[in-house]
UniProtKB/TrEMBL annotation:
Phylogenetic lineage: Bacteria, Pseudomonadati, Bdellovibrionota, Bdellovibrionia, Bdellovibrionales
UniProt domain Outer membrane protein beta-barrel: residue ranges: 9-184
Protein name (record): Outer membrane protein beta-barrel domain-containing protein
Pfam families tied to this protein: OMP_b-brl
Keywords from the named record: Signal
This protein's record includes keyword Signal: yes
Signal peptide boundaries: 1-21
UniProt-listed InterPro entries: Beta-barrel_OMP, OMP/PagP_B-barrel
Keyword Signal: yes
Length: 189
């Protein structure tokens, strides 16, 4: 009886709503930040993200993404101290459900998203005149969420701005919010 009722409800829902075709969107975004405190202390980071989004019911999408992020920090307390160079790398594979607040022909398409991500991290520290050491926290599956705005320039090309957050573990059962602001382009296939 439950099965018959479920089939009936699904049939009514799909027959009462207009047909919506599936479509796919490819995205590519890049972020870079350079901060210099003085001649001995600086931080440089960059990230690149590729994504594929499968839209269904016009305003819902499943987005699969891969981010490769790198950071380089060079530090020296004073000119006579040894140089400390820290290299950090992160790879993030995400899967998010996106809710768009406009139809696909609108110029401005704000959206929110939520889902999860698999994070892999690596850090190497080199101190001038000493051995280097590495830290590799275990891979973690964490919740993620975000918001953004897509500006549809043509029927197939758009500009995408987003703010994404991951709940990254930092040890001892604690988590922190790691975030990223991105700008990129999208193509609807």
């Amino acid at each position: 009886m439950k099965k018959v009722f479920s089939v009936f409800v699904l049939t009514v829902l799909f027959m009462s709503s207009p047909a919506h075709a599936l479509y796919t969107e490819l995205g590519l975004s890049y972020g870079r930040k350079t901060t210099t405190f003085d001649e001995n202390n600086s931080f440089d980071s960059e990230s690149i993200t590729g994504s594929i989004s499968i839209y269904f019911l016009e305003r819902l999408a499943l987005e699969l993404s891969y981010t490769d992020a790198r950071g380089l920090r060079e530090e020296k307390a004073n000119s006579s101290d040894p140089q400390r160079t820290t290299t950090q790398k992160s790879q993030i594979m995400g899967a998010d459900l996106i809710l768009v607040f406009a139809d696909k022909k609108s110029l401005f398409q704000p959206y929110i998203k939520g889902g999860g991500a698999q994070i892999s991290r690596f850090q190497e520290v080199k101190i001038e005149g000493q051995d280097s050491y590495t830290i590799e926290p275990e891979n973690a599956t964490v919740p993620s969420y975000g918001a953004g705005l897509k500006i549809q320039m043509t029927e197939t090309f758009g500009i995408k701005l987003s703010y994404d957050v991951w709940k990254t573990p930092i040890g001892g059962g604690m988590q922190t919010d790691d975030s990223s602001v991105r700008a990129g382009i999208t193509w609807v296939l």
